[in-house]
Amino acid sequence: MQDISGLIHKIKHGLDTQVSLARLRRNRTLADAAAGRIVLITGASSGIGRIAATKLGAAGATVLLVARRAGELEQAVAEIGAEGGKAVAYPCDLNDFDALDAMAAKVLADHGHVDILVNNAGRSIRRTLDQSYDRFHDYERTMRLNYFAAVRLILALAPAMRDRHDGQIINILSLANLYGGPGYGAYVASKAALDSLSTSLQAETHTENVRFTSIYLPLVRTPMIAPNALYRNATALTPDEGGQIICDAIIDRPRRLAPVLGRVTALIDSVLPDRADGIRSARFQQGM
């Protein structure tokens, strides 16, 4: 059975290939897609959110940075400004729904609308079923940030997008939503809920030029994966690669962006679920 590092390498290559082909076919740049537009990114104080914000600011977007750590947000604002970009920090703990609602209201009061929402903030918890019998709160915590916080932002910002017949909502999901994530049940389920919601809402807004984009990211070398010793030496995207994928999604506006291997695995799962479950189980038993 292939080890996790080799699997992620193949997945990463598949995503690189898909994105590279899209870049060859495209006839516009990030500046064409983002200049003059207002982009709100959650989880923007570090990692792929901060990288994407920096790239978008350089491309002429007004970037609204949302995260808990106000000091790091201000550093990002200063860096973007030093490169000639425009950014505004909106410190907010997205787990606090009253604070989230107030932040969204202030954003709309300050800017009138948001053209692109990137739901990037997230919480990952690794606990197996037998470790979770008395930890229902793990499921509540992941759903609160990964799903309900994103939903509240969508509900706050989508009306102006629909009125303007222009907008994009990008949801950062996990590749495990396509091939399964044993040991990460709470995390994967919370991301799956957001993915399923987007499918329904895209159907409702299909004729309104409001685009829901799901990005199924493989492992990214960020602080989120640091506590897991299994991933310390695993192949992973760099934050710059992950941030660039968000920018690619803004340029191309795909409905879904996922590695080919992940999409093939999802297809196999739908046709041969028992076989797919066996493969997942074997990989899990090996220590994934």
Descriptive overview:
- There is one protein chain.
- By secondary structure, the chain is α/β, with parallel strands linked by helices.
- The chain has one domain: NAD(P)-binding Rossmann-like Domain (Rossmann fold).
- Helices cover 55% and strands 14% of the residues.
- The chain is built from 11 helices and 7 strands.
- It has a 7-stranded parallel sheet, sandwiched between helices.
- Helix 3 packs parallel to helix 4, helix 5 runs parallel beside helix 6 and helix 10 packs across helix 11.
Unreliable runs: 1-8
Beta-strand content estimate: 5-15%
Rg over CA atoms, rounded to whole Å, is 19 Å
Mean pLDDT: 86
Strand order of the largest sheet: 3-2-1-4-5-6-7
**What is the CATH topology classification name?**
Rossmann fold
Based on the structure given, which CATH architecture is correct? 3-Layer(aba) Sandwich
Share of helix, binned = 55-70%
CATH superfamily: NAD(P)-binding Rossmann-like Domain
Distance between the termini: 12 Å
Query: In total, how many beta strands?
Result: 7
The profile of the biggest β sheet is: 7 strands, parallel
Helix/strand order: HHEHEHEHEHEHHEHEHH
Shape: globular
Estimated structural class: alpha/beta
